[in-house]
Design a protein that fits this description.
908 residues; N-terminal domain of TfIIb; Dimethylsulfoxide Reductase, domain 2; 6 domains; six-stranded mixed beta barrel; 31 helices; binds ligand MGD; binds iron/sulfur cluster; binds molybdenum atom; Mopterin_OxRdtase; Mopterin_OxRdtase_4Fe-4S_dom; periplasm
Length: 908
């Protein structure tokens, strides 16, 4: 039961909004939040935050609807049984202590996350590296940004993002590589689109094997063959050299070696036709891109996972940085390489050294002087002398029993690591798994010996750093629910119980931040760019009032710095940088006759990773309700697949089921599947079960975008869906997807065995009442129950509906084939207190008497505008711009995340 104390969780006085930061992507938008009851809040973009100036995307603007406590983890548990904090903390501390005493410090590990706050991250890293004395702390940023980290270190001598978001607005050419910015960094993309309206010279190029919402809005889309980015940028370096566009003065003054990189580019990408052939694109398009780049001074190249998540990810990033260094286009207004970080605090994690091969404050674990420096600052008893294991290797070590105790915080490796079945097997075998989480019922939770309830967004307090080095405060506006605690608190109390009380006596995030800031300046004679010593003296009030600021913050830059490296000042000896020679390499595992397609995985607009938060609001589940596999129409013909059919995907590692989508946006030979669906939402949607655990040799980042797979129709005995006002318990079906709707639940189902009688099967579906709903009757008290039914045993069709006092309670549609009525109109009937006669007549037909009544799949999440409504309005009212659509239907006028899709509807 939710305690009465939760009835008002507001921490704000006088209803004033609290300024905080969005917990989703690395854009790091400022949010103004006002609590509205214990489980919701009014959310607005913060007009003063320099990342978003008031804008929010669909995910950010729905934050207020994701604060439900229904599935939260609210109490510490051991083996699923509620225990006291003292028991839980002591169990973790004692088990770690015992394991270390018996097997040494490398027999334990932490696996942490870019969704921790900087303060949480700092403490976890300090405990593992300085006190336990092992390098075995790695983070999910390994799966995300580590190729960029490795490449920036190779190029600049330090992991530094030189530019700022405003450079995107000052540029005349923006090159987006392996980034679906329109969906994954939406507010930044909106800033680019707005800049394009102001500056008619500004062009956007998108380099992505798939045509995404980003590609649709670009001036030029290069659908390169997967994995060929290095050849493309090597070719560009070569082209720039042939066309006298190299800034040799910059190279002479600020670079160490550079000749070898030119030579390697010349050999690997000798001519335009050769590059066009390697990349599988037209020579004309390639020449256009090269010409634009060569003849535009202000160029920003931004990239994300299509670049990083590759067995040549580090080389890909260096090939991009090379063209910027070689032309001196770095650190100046409107130009530079700009890595777009994924998670809200991917950058903060790098600053505190959360990766297994780093130390805190951008220092190197393999450098004895650096180790000594950190050890001295922490007054630490021991330091590791070698890097720890990187994520994929770390879970292998768990499987092999070399690591015997692991503590996982704010990430779900059972879902997000490649070869996920092997990871689950490793967790199953591990002697001790502790998990710090906000949610109960995750796939990972099932493996936990100890579950530690952590504060979630809105409750936690600290700092994050976004993609442009900007440190912002996340502030609490809701009191802690149940017994949940801040992550830093949990780690510190375990550290105390392990005997390190003096060094972990923290009582607030502020104290930790000061220590972190102080370390960044400790014996830093200007050699380390990451220096926020200017914030080391912040008092509590100053920390609470801290305005967003871009590091470095020190005596030279008391107000932070928008750009770095404009006049060199790199971090290698002599303040130089390096042009890194890179050679194109094929992806680790090429497709073959048995597994002929390349599986590409990534994100959709309205879901965040494993859906623990974005799955909580129907506003975000409507856009793409079900896991899908998108493939080219030619491939579909080849493999006998039709639009809307269920397909089985299979690799050498595992299998998954998804709904087929046919599209020319997908190049032949590739199939794209989103990464989001995990156990709580889909029985067979775990795409990482298929993904190969190949990694980049420098960064250890997994190749999540390239696995050979095969695809075939999945032919169960029956297909169906059930819409229900109340959530239903376990439904026995091979294929089951659970979708939260507005006032209803939708279950997409398919199974290989037909039950003996449908009516009994459907009536037997157990309603699953949550603790809170126990008292609320699902059925209006004096409502009379009414069953409508239609069955045709000959065709295998069965349809039924249950009404209580005229109110739709449940309906089910079953068929032998996957062809079933659209769900949108039926779902809309759950909003009504009584199904009108007209609709009741057509209920079992599954479609409205008039087509006008079906809005179709939701495109605009903010105003619930569906694709059918849009198509009708475009035709009938002759709409030709997104502004006109906005005026007619409001679609696209709030967060703007759907504008690329509105544009493509207009085009069609
Ligand atoms: N809506 C939403 N937004 C998010 C997230 C989310 O879960 N949902 N997560 C956040 C996080 S942590 C991250 S890391 C970012 C990721 O942001 P993005 O990197 O933009 O997103 P992805 O969809 O993973 O992949 C981007 C693109 O890489 C392309 N790609 C695949 N192979 C290649 C290749 O060989 N070369 C090139 N050039 N491109 C290729 C894919 O087709 C895909 O369109 O998004 C952040 N923002
Ligand atoms: N196939 C494939 N796999 C991928 C990717 C891909 O593109 N393709 N992308 C990779 C990338 S870039 C990333 S970043 C990862 C993301 O993968 P994960 O990190 O595994 O995904 P999340 O769902 O964000 O997991 C975060 C978990 O932490 C919990 N949580 C949230 N806030 C807090 C907090 O403050 N404290 C604690 N203790 N817990 C919290 C959430 O409830 C959630 O369960 O996935 C990677 N995996
Ligand atoms: S772009 Fe959207 S998800 Fe990313 S920080 Fe801004 S509001 Fe949040
Ligand atoms: Mo990420």
């Amino acid at each position: 039961m939710i305690s009465a104390a939760l009835s008002d969780r507001s921490l704000t006085a006088d209803d004033a909004p609290v300024a905080t930061t969005c917990p989703y992507c690395g854009v790091g938008c400022g949010v103004l939040a006002k609590p509205r009851g214990p489980e919701s809040a009014e959310i607005k973009g913060d007009p003063e935050h320099p990342a978003n100036f008031g804008r929010l995307c669909s995910k950010g603007s729905s934050l207020g609807e994701t604060l439900s406590l229904e599935t939260r983890l609210l109490h510490p548990e051991i083996r699923g049984r509620r225990v006291s904090w003292d028991d839980a903390l002591t169990t973790v501390a004692d088990t770690f202590r015992r394991t270390i005493d018996t097997h040494g410090p490398d027999a334990v590990a932490f696996y942490v996350s870019g969704q921790l706050l900087t303060e949480d991250y700092y403490v976890a890293n300090k405990l593992m590296k300085g006190y336990i004395g092992s390098g075995n702390i790695d983070t999910n940023s390994r799966l995300c940004m580590s190729s960029t980290v490795a490449a920036q270190k190779r190029a600049f001598g330090e992991d530094v993002v030189p530019g700022s978001y405003e450079d995107l607005e000052l540029a005349d050419l923006i090159v987006l590589v392996g980034s679906n910015t329109a969906w994954c960094h939406p507010v930044l993309f909106q800033r680019m689109v707005a800049a394009k309206k102001r500056n008619s010279r500004l062009k956007i190029v998108n380099i992505d094997p798939r045509r995404t919402a980003t590609g649709q809005s670009a001036d030029l889309h290069l659908p390169i063959r997967p994995g060929t980015d290095v050849a493309l940028f090597n070719g560009l370096l070569n082209f720039l050299r042939h066309n006298d566009k190299i800034d040799f003065t910059f190279l002479e003054n600020h670079l160490g070696h550079y000749a070898a990189a030119f030579e390697s580019a010349r050999k690997a990408a000798p001519s335009l036709p050769a590059v066009a052939q390697i990349c599988g694109i037209s020579e004309d398009d390639l020449a256009t891109f090269y010409q634009w780049f060569a003849h535009t001074e202000k160029v920003v190249t931004a990239w994300s996972q299509g670049v990083n998540q590759s067995s040549s990810g580090t080389d890909k990033v260096n090939s991009i940085i090379n063209v910027h260094l070689a032309t001196g286009r770095i650190g100046k207004p409107g130009m530079g390489p700009l890595s777009l970080t994924g998670q809200p605090n991917a950058m903060g994690g790098r600053e505190v050294g959360g990766l297994a091969n780093q130390l805190a404050a951008h220092l190197d674990i393999e450098n004895p002087e650096h180790r000594a420096l950190v050890q001295a600052f922490w007054n630490a008893p021991r330091m590791p002398t070698k890097p720890g294991l990187k994520a994929v290797d770390l879970f292998r070590a768990i499987a092999e029993g070399r690591i015997k105790a692991v503590w996982i915080m704010a990430t779900n490796p059972a879902v997000s690591l490649p070869d996920a079945n092997a990871v689950r097997d490793a967790l199953h075998r591990c002697e001790f798994v502790a998990v710090s989480e906000c949610e109960s019922g995750t796939d990972l939770g099932a493996f936990a010996h100890v579950n530690l309830p952590a504060l979630a967004w809105g409750e936690k307090d600290g700092t994050v750093t976004n993609s442009e080095r900007r440190i912002s405060r996340q502030r609490a506006f809701l009191a802690a629910p149940g017994e949940a605690k801040p992550d830093w608190w949990i780690v510190s109390r375990v550290a105390e119980r392990m005997g390190y009380g003096e060094s972990f006596s923290y009582r607030s995030a502020w104290e930790i931040f000061r220590e972190h800031a102080c370390l960044s300046g400790f014996r830093n004679g200007g050699g380390r760019a990451f220096d926020i010593s200017g914030l080391a003296e912040l008092d509590r009030a100053g920390y609470d009032a801290l305005k967003p600021i871009q590091w470095p913050v020190n005596v030279d830059y008391p107000n932070g710095a928008a750009r770095m490296f404009c006049n060199g000042g790199f971090s290698f000896a002599g303040r130089r940088a390096e042009l890194v020679p890179v050679v194109p390499k094929a992806p680790a595992n090429p497709p073959d006759a048995a597994y002929p397609l390349v599986l590409n995985t990534g994100r959709i607009r309205d879901q965040w990773h494993t859906m623990t938060r974005t799955g909580k609001t129907s506003r975000l589940t409507n856009h793409v309700p079900e896991p899908f596999a998108e493939l080219n129409t030619n491939d579909a013909v080849r493999f006998g697949i039709q639009e809307g059919m269920l397909v089985r995907l299979e690799s050498r590692f595992g299998q998954a089921l998804a709904r087929a989508r046919l599209s020319e946006d997908q190049q032949p030979g590739s199939v794209f599947v989103p990464m989001h669906w995990s156990g709580p939402y889909a029985s067979r949607g775990l795409i990482n079960a298929l993904v190969n655990p190949a990694t980049d040799p420098f960064s250890g980042e997994p190749e999540s975008k390239h696995t050979p797979v095969r695809i075939a129709p999945y032919r169960p005995a029956w297909h169906g869906f059930v819409l229900s006002r109340e959530p239903l318990g376990a439904i026995e079906a091979e294929y089951r997807v659970t979708i939260r709707g507005d006032g209803h639940w939708l279950y997409e189902l398919a199974h290989s065995e037909t039950p003996p009688a449908w009516p009994a099967w459907i009536r037997g579906m157990p309603a699953q009442f949550s603790a809170r709903r126990e008292s609320a009757p699902a059925v209006p008290e004096n409502g009379n129950e009414e069953w409508l039914e239609f069955a045709d045993p000959h065709t295998g069709r069965y349809r039924c509906a249950l009404l209580h006092g005229g109110r739709l309670q449940l309906c089910a549609f079953i068929n032998r084939s996957f062809e079933l009525p659209p769900r949108s109109w039926l779902a809309g009937l759950f909003a009504l207190d009584e199904v009108p006669d007209r609709a009741r007549m057509s209920l079992l037909a599954g479609k409205p008497a008039s087509a006008e009544d079906d809005r179709g799949r939701i495109v605009c999440s903010c105003f619930g505008v569906g694709v059918n409504t849009l198509k009708r309005a475009i035709q009938k009212q002759n709409l030709s711009t997104t502004e006109q659509i906005g005026a007619a239907l409001k679609a696209g006028t709030n967060c703007g995340s759907c504008i690329p899709e509105l544009k493509s509807l207009l085009q069609r």
